[in-house]
Amino acid sequence: MKDSYGREITYLRISVTELCDLRCRYCMPEDGVCKKAHEEMLTLEETELAVKAAASLGIKKIRITGGEPLVKKNIVDICEKTAHTEGIKEVCVTTNGITLDKYAEPLKNAGVKRLNISLDTLDKDKYRYITRRGNLEDALKGIEAALNAGFDKIKLNAVLIGGFNDDEIPALAELTRKYPLDMRFIEMMPMYDSGDFKKEAFIPYTKVLEVLPELEKLPRDGSVAKLYKLPGAKGNIGLISPVSAHFCKECNRLRLTADGKIKPCLHSDAEYPIKGLDYDGMVKVFKEAILAKPEWHGVLSPEQRSRAGRNMNMIGG
Ligand code: SAM
Ligand code: SF4
Q: To test the ligand 2 pocket, which listed residue (68, 71, 94, 188) has its Cβ within 8 A of the most ligand atoms?
């Protein structure tokens, strides 16, 4: 179905939990989130119904995310049911990867085609600092397990943070020469109340082009990333610029939060609840949400933070 600006909406990101086993500084507060009552969250059956309702309106691609999707007990079941829903062509998962050594194969067998794994640094102390509790070794083990499981595509996501990992851009990019995976650099978004970053920490995607002048430009692949490649590399480099060069014109996505709110735009507080509705009710609300998708997300800067009203872990990145 098309929105009011003629964009065909084909992609739904479903956050299956707000909880996470890490506490990345740009994503959520140190004390985590207070666990909402079970009754407030979508059940597995409601999630299944929502996927069917969305598919009936032309959603073809689903990304399962969170919080950390792999802390959700029935995650493999959710992925399997989603992958087998009529009309859904592709199911992808975004994860911090720290338990992927256990989950890579079951997810692949459940029908997940693609994985995005977050990796902001290759330094174990910096990894512990940015995640406030994670071990780099676990994430690397997870990436290795994902590579062995044979997904169609694996992308590593690094949030660009000036003064933290801009010195690691070459080393992170170099992974695309060693392994058949893509490395994506994402501009840090100033969310609701997360992160205590100074203005200098927000660096534009063009920093990657400055640091890696040897990058060769590639045609776009339908995603929002600007694509490049290191000469002779196995994988691509993707640059994602929600702040300095927004891609709202090409935005084809909706988000569904773990507590059952459809968000037509990541940076708006407009939410459309579907918790407790039957199939027809959900289809109706999905239509309303698609038609309410704003033209763009408005100015985003360290001074003008996101108007999402939630942090990333509560939306689904
Ligand atoms: N826990 C999973 C993970 O870390 O991959 C999935 C959820 S996480 C919210 C999804 C993605 O959002 C991650 O790649 C993370 O780096 C990114 N993210 C979180 N907060 C962000 C922010 N303020 N700006 C840019 N990206 C952010
Ligand atoms: Fe957790 Fe992902 Fe947020 Fe990090 S980015 S705190 S891993 S939800």
A: 68
CA of 4 to the centre of ligand 2 (A): 32
Instruction: List the 90-95 sheet strands across, edge first.
Output: 216-217, 226-229, 237-240, 182-187, 153-160, 114-118, 90-95, 61-65, 11-15, 253-256, 261-263, 272-273
Give domain limits for the chain: 11-314
284: number of Cβ within 10 Å: 14
Ligand 2 atom closest to the CA of 28, numbered from 1: 6
Pairing outcome for strands 237-240 and 182-187: parallel
- Encoding tokens for residue 241? 């610029």
Measured CA to CA, the distance from residue 201 to residue 315 in angstroms comes to: 22
Please name the residue that has the structure tokens 């009552």.
Answer: 37
Whether 187 and 205 have beta carbons less than 8 Å apart is answered as yes
**Exposed / middle / buried, residue 210 (Cβ in 10 Å: 0-12, 13-18, 19+):** exposed
Placement of tokens 């909402």 in the chain: 36
CATH superfamily, domain 11-314, is Aldolase class I (3.20.20.70)
Residue 96 Cβ < 6 Å to ligand 1: yes
- 3-class SS at 137? helix
Say what the pTM is: 0.96
Indicate which ligand has the atom closest to the C-alpha of 186. 1
Q: Please report which ligand is nearest the Cα atom of 118.
A: 1
User: What pLDDT, in 10s, does the model give residues 240-253?
Assistant: 998 887 778 889 99
Q: Using the predicted structure, report yes or no on whether residue 34 has a pLDDT greater than 70.
A: no
Q: Which two tokens stand for residue 210?
A: 């400055």
What does the CA dihedral 65, 71, 72, 77 come to, rounded to 10 degrees?
Answer: 80
